[in-house]
Amino acid sequence: MEEKKVIIQLRDVCKSFQNHMVLKDLSLDIYKEETFVIIGPSGIGKSTVLKHLAGLLLPDFGSICIENLEITQLGELELNELRKKMGFVFQSAALFDSLNVFENVAFRLLRDYQIPVSEAEKIVLEKLELVGLKPEIINKKPAELSGGMKKRVGLARAIAVNPEFVFYDEPTSGLDPISARAINDLILNLQKKLKVTSIVVTHDLSSAYRVANRIGMLYDGKIIGLGTPEALQQNTDPRIQKFIYSTL
């Protein structure tokens, strides 16, 4: 059996805000091309972990390595180069209201890569097709889209630059069950087609079980349970069991 390659490594990461410690000696390994899901109650620090991985926050203590780069020691230019390998799917989709679908999806292509508009249009259409959207929406503004369509456009924008890592912050939040299932299926399909490493933050257990290769439960600043969806369900830690059954 081929040995799994650790692509992201956190060691003893600590982070406080206004004397409240959110992350406490957090240690975690994430494997190349897996979908790793972080679960836990709202406000527990799940999104804080994503912000650290993106270099948007730096830990008070500890180490964060991505592709053997210690990101706490990188300068801003080096961090920006690393971020070019990352795609972000935000909880609210975070589309620019004043821009149409094409301009939203092509935003990083045009700004960071100076790709010609004609080439960017081909890429945008390709990514829209990958997330199940038709070319006709390319000139629509976000206000003209449903919640599920906004999430798909946000996902198309995240993968437009062919990232190696995709970070999802509550990707099914605010969606009806049918739309949420469609987004979960997209996460699975994109991971298989694009061979990306995906980190998903969610409190939606049905979504976690659907997309994850492995799940880690964050509690009191640490990962207290880690394994496959099946293993996590069988974990006897009362804190994990309470969270699982309180969300049913």
| Second rung of CATH, namely the architecture of the domain at 1-85 and 204-248 | 3-Layer(aba) Sandwich
Uncertain runs with pLDDT below 50, 5 residues or more?
A: none
> How much of the polypeptide forms β-strand, as a percent range?
25-35%
The main pleated sheet reads as:
6 strands, mixed
CATH topology of the domain at 1-85 and 204-248: Rossmann fold
N-C termini distance:
36 Å
Task: List SSEs in N-to-C order.
Answer: EEEHEEHEHHHHEHEHEEHH
Helical stretch count?
A: 10
Strand order, main sheet: write it out. Answer: 6-7-8-3-9-10
Relevant CATH superfamily of the domain at 1-85 and 204-248: P-loop containing nucleotide triphosphate hydrolases
**Structural class, please?**
alpha/beta
- General form: globular
Cα-atom Rg, whole angstroms? 18 Å
Number of strands: 10
On the 0 to 100 scale, the average pLDDT is 92
The percent of residues in helical segments reads: 25-40%
What is the CATH class of the domain at 1-85 and 204-248?
A: Alpha Beta
Characterization of this structure:
By secondary structure, this protein is an alpha/beta fold. It has a domain at about 1-85 and about 205-248: Rossmann fold (3-Layer(aba) Sandwich), CATH 3.40.50.300. About 40% of the residues lie in helices and about 25% in strands. It has ten helices and ten strands. A six-stranded mixed sheet has the order 6-7-8-3-9-10, with helices on both faces. A four-stranded antiparallel sheet has the order 2-1-4-5, with helices on one face. A hairpin with a 2-residue loop joins strand 9 (about 215-220) and strand 10. The longest helix is centred in the C-terminal third of the chain and has 18 residues, at about 175-195. The protein is globular and about 50 Å long.
